[in-house]
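Sample pair:
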Amino acid sequence: MRHRHVIALIGLAAVALLTLAACGESEPATPSGVGARAVAVMTGPDGASMGTVTLTQVPSGVLVSADVHGLSAGGHGFHIHSVGACAPDFTAAGGHFDPHETGHGLFVNDTPHPGDLPNIYAGSDGAARADVFTAAVTLDANADHSLFDADGSAIIIHAKPDSYGEEPGAGDRAACGVIQRA
């Protein structure tokens, strides 16, 4: 059992190094805010509360934890978007967070942009819970891949699943939440 934990930690470190290399960083630096948290309070197009997405800074990246409801059953694109705004409509959140212009697509790019996260899945009751780890973003304000850049960032949940291809194909924006420090 101990060997599995060591292998998992080595794997996480390798992912962090590859992501930092893709972002132009020469060596990994531990974010100054390890343990820092941020929250996106999710709302639907009608303003109804749809739950929260919590982001926690860890030494090798950010743990993104979704606890949302009010979705249709099935898969939904789950992305970090480039602007910390949801109003007047969810298009205010801009495109996917991509500070290094690497392009979309977990299936087509060696280093997809930092806004690409795996789909989340809602049950028949419309609830979805997910924990997703990404080494491609940080809550540390002093980094070039920080979610707290000049215009902030948002979480968007789409009506359909992401294709993971060059074009997201995830459909309408079903929920939005501005990422704010907790």
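Residues 1-28 have pLDDT under 50 and may be disordered.
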